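Take a record.
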Amino acid sequence: RPFTDITCARSWVAGFVDWYNNEHRHSGIRFVTPHERHERRDQAILAARADVYREAAMRHPSRWRGRATRNWTPVGAVWLNPDNDDRKAPD
């Protein structure tokens, strides 16, 4: 359904951008929000999650049956267009 006017469109986009940056946990950055990553809080958040998973695996090993827990290692640089060679992070 189209927007009725530019004000409605701007309002919708503003709400979407707020949700995406502050609430949406993105799989490409290990399920932290873009805002958390931008504020450099992702490493602490991911370390805490890794601790929770480690503790759960120790307390209930039968639930894991030798499988690894989820990978909570922080990711390095991310790009919107990774196929573009001059935008890739140096090795």
Residues 6-87 form one domain.
